[in-house]
Amino acid sequence: MNSYPQAATIAGIDSGGGAGVNADVKTMQERHVFSATIIVAVTAQNTLGVQDFEPVSIKLINEQFKSLADDLNIRACKTGMLADAAHVHAVAQNLQRYDFGPYTLDPVMVAKGGAHLLSDDAIATVRDELIPLATVVTPNLPETEALTGGKIESEADMQAAGHTLQQLGAKNVVVKGGHGANSQTSSDFVLLENGRSFWLSTPRIATKNTHGTGDTFASCITAELAKGKSVEAAIRLAKAFIQAAIADGIDVGHGHGPTNHWAFRKVVQTDAKD
Ligand SMILES: Nc1ncnc2c1ncn2[C@@H]1O[C@H](COP(=O)(O)OP(=O)(O)O)[C@@H](O)[C@H]1O
Ligand SMILES: Cc1ncc(COP(=O)(O)O)c(N)n1
Q1: Residue 36 falls inside a structural domain
Q2: DSSP assignment of 63-101
Q3: In this predicted model, what pLDDT tens digit does every residue of 58-109 receive, in sequence order?
Q4: How many domains would you assign to the chain?
Q5: Does pTM surpass 0.95?
Q6: Which residues constitute the domain of residue 71?
Q7: Which of 57, 81, 101, 127 could form a disulfide with 117 if both were Cys (CB 3.0 to 4.6 A apart)?
Q8: What residues flank ligand 2, with Cβ below 6 Å?
Q9: 130-187: per-residue pLDDT in tens?
Q10: Quick one: which ligand is closest to 81's CA?
């Protein structure tokens, strides 16, 4: 019998299939990691936007955590859409109650279509209760501004914000540059626990199909951490994975379409288990 590493995603589910838990499950599967899911919110969503959502009761979230802890062997986890302060708090409590391994915090706030997936008053709860628990935090530029309180207008601003996020308690930080102004490259700033930092830059792909890029990137990091890879190796592989997924586009829906979660298998020769 093959034994695959197990990881959990704790997030919202996207009826349109391209982002949230859906992107996480697809990505982890591609990386040969068994994915379990703790659903925090259900969205009515497609590539045109988020039409509605409802959070799941905190009782049921607590029960989902317990169900996994009682039976599975979760070796890494990530969070995505968490809806509001009460749900952020409940997730933080559960992450402290159970050992689900290295934790990747994708601080999802506003969907690409403009819908608020986290209430404004919950930003402080994410900063105070989740960032100190995070092995890796992966904010995009607007999320970095919201968490650090400063404007990000240059690469120097991204670097400074990375250090601020580390001071807030995250062990490792990736400030993602997908929302940056550079039309040639999409550059992410990485700051590791040991203080070393570097940029990961790839050619910017001219496409409107970037729905779920952040989820895909963070869940790929989580999958690699579940295998026991180093944080740096996990982040580097995730950057290559998302680049392939954006570049090899698929045609789904009429708005901001999803990425291609099976594209990476075409560009790598090594086994996804490695
Ligand atoms: N058009 C693009 N071309 C290449 N890489 C991109 C593009 N858009 C986003 N990325 C990359 O995708 C990842 C997710 O970034 P981003 O889109 O900023 O996150 P989010 O989905 O959280 O807003 C990052 O590694 C970023 O550099
Ligand atoms: C359930 C859920 N989680 C996360 C996102 C963010 O993804 P994006 O910013 O690419 O729209 C989303 N749209 N829906």
Answers
A1: yes
A2: HHHHHHHHH--EEEEEE---BSHHHHHHHHHHHHHS---
A3: 999 999 999 999 999 999 999 999 999 999 999 999 999 999 999 999 999 9
A4: 1
A5: yes
A6: 6-267
A7: 81
A8: 11-12, 14, 19-20, 43, 45, 80-81, 108, 111-112, 117, 211-215
A9: 999 999 999 999 999 999 998 999 999 999 999 999 999 999 999 999 998 888 999 9
A10: 2
The verdict on residue 46 lying in a domain is yes
Pick the ligand that lies closest to the CA of residue 142: 1
CATH number at residue 195: 3.40.1190.20
Mean pLDDT estimate for the chain: 96
pLDDT at 139: 98
CA distance 117 to 104: 18
- Tell me 110's DSSP state: B
* Residue of minimum CA distance from atom 2 in ligand 2: 20
The pair of structure tokens assigned to 186 is: 């999409």
| Ligand nearest, relative to CA of residue 186 | 1
Q: How many CB atoms are closer than 10 A to CB 149?
A: 11
Q: Residue 43 CA: which ligand 2 atom is closest?
A: 1
Does residue 273 fall inside a structural domain? no
Does 55 map to a domain?
A: yes
How far apart are alpha carbons 7 and 226 in whole angstroms? 6
Instruction: Name all residues whose Cβ lies below 6 A of ligand 1.
Output: 140, 176-179, 186, 188, 202, 204-205, 207, 210, 213-214, 217, 239, 242-243, 246
